Sequence to fold (489 residues):
Amino acid sequence: MKTGYTADQIRVAEQALMALLPEGTLMQRAATGLAAVCADLLGRVYGRRVVLLVGSGDNGGDALYAGERLARRGAWVGAVLAGSKTHEAGLRALLDAGGRVVEPPELGRADLIIDGLVGIGASGALREPYARLAEEANAAPGPVVAVDVPSGVDASTGQVAGAAVRARVTVTMGAYKTGLLVDPGASVAGDVRLIDIGLGEHLPDPDVAALTGGDVDALMPRPGAESDKYRRGVLGVAAGGDQFTGAAVLAVGGALRAGAGMVRYAGREGPVAQVRAHWPEAVVTPLDEPVIDQVGRVQAWVLGPGLGTDDWAHELAARVLGSGVPVLVDADALTLVARDPGLLRRDAPVLLTPHAGELARLIRAERDDIEAARLVHVRRAAAELGATVLLKGSTTVVAEDARPVRVNVTGTSWLATGGTGDVLAGVAGALLAQGLSCYDAASCGAFLHGLAGRLAADGAPLAAADVATAVPAAIRAVSGATSSGARRL
Fold:
């Protein structure tokens, strides 16, 4: 599992470790790792031009010492001194190795730029001259390597308040920072490389966590020899209406592909016919009235995709949420809940799966504010609504109580197309029915859905049905069972 930490958590761990080591040891460890990554990117170090953007803090010192190491290997290294002060020992080491102090125009001639302007303690918009230098680095032809976090990114939240460096690679020291895993910070961090400087045993419980393929494999329900369709989990799906019949088809398809032993679909006449035609495996119950007594026993429900928001849909939502099993609430059902929060007053678990606009209605916030501060708002929603919340978007995040927010690392921008959220609801619902908690079902469902999107797209546009079809391949990939042999993510 990849874990992320706030700036405060990192600083406390660093102070505990520094108390045990000679002065300057951590900076030398960081500089050695940073220089190694830069040398790898350069390929040939001798004769290459490297420009350092040096701020007043320890990141500037890391950059200077890394520059010293590159200069001793024959690189031309120049430092743009942007801060009100400079790490004196680092600058002296660079100059002794043949480096020099240069002006910002050298950025345009650099084969590599090292961003050491600000560190993990910075928050808010970059001040001048840092903001201008960040923009000049972004405009320069050479790739940028950021030290710890790209300047302009809040290390604790991923928020970007103004100009920010866009890094090809971010070399982060000791542990991943939360802001490197969550957009918009993650979108400018590039390839994040972790350098071990010895913080491990000094780190507290993480702020956020990202599942790996191995983690998902360990959590996934697997049928045993004694399994039957009922023991493998029965999922009820209340979705689709006369206007959006396809939502029901996609949700049922995602559930079937994700391993539910049985899917019981309940809906109005229009989507009933479509589900029967597409998925003869599903047990279909037409509903003349919004009641679920005749549907049969289920272990969990998916409620809402394409359902509509009229009185009929509201009554059906009330019946489903009045049951004693876990319920995943999506799409139109989120609108119903936003109008009538009393629907969420229940003892059984609830998993809400909104996008930013839907979450804005649920917690009376602005969509733009949610997009800019996803962690803040998903935590607020989980606390206020008493539910597990999966917030969809460029970075999908899952919050529950005081547990670390889980950040999904799979996916592709091709998933931004109609109906893919319905498939996600079906996948996560199937995992709920198979016995996973809301927290694990949401996290694993998002991982598999994102991976299925990658496999289905393969660099080209996809349709939502393609994602459902690719879910078994995603499950095989996390278990290492591909058609060509064992491979792990």
The first helix runs from residue 7 to 18. Confidence is low (pLDDT under 50) at residues 481-488. The first strand starts at residue 2 and ends at 5. The radius of gyration is 26 Å.
